[in-house]
Specification:
The structure is a single chain. The chain is about 25% helix and about 15% strand. The protein is of the alpha/beta class. It has a single domain, classed as 3-Layer(aba) Sandwich (Uracil-DNA Glycosylase, subunit E), CATH 3.40.470. Helix 3 packs across helix 4. The mean pLDDT is about 95.
């Protein structure tokens, strides 16, 4: 049973893919719910949402062309706390191939590396999953603050609006 349900359907512009829900996200049953996480502020700042949304409002995002999934659906916590057996990047690839969003946006290099099967830099990647373009973005987690850079997020937003 997944900790947070996927939010997927055909014709989405972007599906955000993280590693796993944080302990706070699991407790609140909402994506990117830790108070130190910049996800919701970033979505609003780059104008992918018309207002600042609360994590518990994540179910509103498909109407804005945005969906969610995770590499790990059965465990929560920091990347280092997740068991290798619970990681399922192949499932992410199958879901993307099935629903064919315009973009898959991995929120962190670890998620990107697992989904793509190789090390990756931030930004638009050379390969696609079916017809879906893949972006790798800096994590919005407070634990990754030293790697934070909003520029790839702004680039994604500009590309989506084209």
């Amino acid at each position: 049973m997944p900790i947070l349900p996927d939010l997927l359907r055909p014709e989405l512009d972007i599906v955000f893919c993280g590693m796993a829900p944080s302990a706070e996200s699991a407790r609140r049953r909402a994506y990117y719910a830790h108070p130190g996480n910049r996800f919701w502020h970033t979505l609003h700042e780059i104008k992918l949402t018309p207002r600042l949304l609360a994590p518990e409002e994540y179910r509103l995002l498909p109407a804005l062309g945005i969906g969610f999934t995770d590499v790990c659906k059965r465990e929560s916590g920091r990347d280092s706390e997740l068991s290798k057996a619970a990681l399922d990047p192949a499932a992410v690839r199958r879901k993307v191939a099935r629903f064919q969003p315009r973009f898959l946006a991995c929120t962190g290099k670890t998620a990107g590396r697992l989904v793509l099967g190789r090390a990756c830099a931030y930004g638009l990647q050379a390969e696609q999953i079916g017809t879906t373009s893949v972006y790798v973005l800096p994590s919005t987690s407070g634990a990754a603050v030293r790697y934070w850079d909003i520029a790839p997020w702004r680039d994604l937003a500009r590309t989506v609006r084209r």
